[in-house]
Specification:
With 331 residues, the protein is α+β, with helices and mostly antiparallel strands. It is 17% helix and 27% strand. Strands 6, 7, 8, 9, 10, 13, 14, 15 and 16 form a 9-stranded mixed sheet that branches.
């Protein structure tokens, strides 16, 4: 719900389906054989493999080489730049890409706050990735949703309409039917969904209540970060200071209300104002008060039910780590 309105489209269906005449290896694998032709004499091994399996990227085939899934004349070959000789026999074991294996059901315990045939509201724990991405192709909330109800497989992103960062905890909503997903996306775009977060940030703001309106885009210097940049997407965060711990390591307890849902929005806006979140290493925060992950929790969600339009409100208390740190700041 917070900082992820720019979704990554699901990867294509597995490209490793067996073709007529292809041999079957392990489950989900395919074996292909070929003889190096005259025109291929002197070419790199990885280039010849592309001709054998053009539906896969060259980088994925190089990955298969490194893992020992390629043989030349019956001997495992691992060097992509190896030059081929006409008449050599190649054997390639095709293994699905990590991306293609990401959209599969994986049973997991979900902390469900509300559920009916159209809507699921849950409490996401810190450490759970919402949507598959490089480095996290399995064990995500999307995988859990695919296992939780059969209809998720027919929905875009299994019904996920917004995201929380991996280390952000708190309340999230998920559509369980296509009409519900459509309505939730529309309501988010119209800013009809109320989202409030609790955060612990370094320093003490000069004002007890303030708004940050600054455009957010990809950090041109560090691609894994977002930043306030000219030409970025409009973003607004309202902030209220609920308490502070003064001293050398001053920390403020903040309530943050989103009016937009840009990637990393609260983290970026507060860091830009000189108040990085506690333990948010990506944006300059340091571990304090027992917090080892970014001190951010989605605590409140208000929306209209996507089908009945009945008003709904959810209040989700922070988990033990943030609750203990919060109490130290607020006394």
């Amino acid at each position: 719900m917070q900082e992820g309105a720019d979704y990554r489209e699901p990867p294509p269906v597995d490209p490793d389906a067996e073709e007529a005449g292809a041999g079957a290896g392990e489950a989900g694998h395919e074996l292909r054989s070929a003889t190096v032709t005259g025109p291929q004499h002197g070419e790199r091994l990885d280039k010849v493999l592309v001709a054998m399996a053009p539906e896969f990227s060259r980088s994925h085939l190089q990955h298969l080489l490194a893992l020992g899934h390629v043989q030349v004349d019956g001997v495992v070959a691992t060097l992509p730049a190896r030059r081929m000789r006409a008449g050599q026999q190649l054997r390639l074991e095709l293994v699905p890409t990590d991306e293609s294996r990401a959209f599969r059901p994986q049973a997991m315990v979900l902390d469900i706050l509300f559920e009916d045939e159209h809507l699921l509201v849950l409490n996401k724990p810190a450490g759970l990735v919402v949507h598959p991405a490089p480095g996290n192709w399995a064990g995500t909330l999307l995988n859990g949703l695919l296992a939780h109800h059969a209809g998720a497989a027919a929905l875009p992103r299994a019904g996920i309409v917004h995201r929380l960062d991996k280390d952000t905890s708190g309340v999230m909503m998920v559509g369980k039917s296509l009409p519900a997903v459509t309505a939730l996306v529309r309501d988010i775009a119209a800013r009809d969904v109320h989202r409030r977060y609790l955060a612990l940030a370094h320093g003490i703001p000069a004002q007890a209540a303030f708004s940050v309106e600054a455009p957010i885009g990809r950090d041109p210097a560090v691609r894994v970060r977002m930043a306030v940049v000219a030409g970025g997407r409009a973003a607004r965060t309202d902030v209220q200071c609920l308490g502070a711990l003064s001293g050398r390591d001053a920390v403020s307890a903040l309530s943050c209300t989103l009016h937009t849902g840009r990637t990393h929005q609260i983290r970026v806006h507060l860091a830009w104002k000189g108040h990085a979140l506690v333990a948010d290493a990506l944006y300059g925060g340091r571990p304090l008060l027992g917090m080892e992950r970014q001190a951010l929790h989605a605590t409140e969600l208000k929306l209209a039910h996507p089908i009945s339009r009945a008003p709904m409100a959810f209040d989700c208390p922070p988990p033990a780590d943030l609750r203990a740190a919060w109490q130290q700041v607020r006394g």
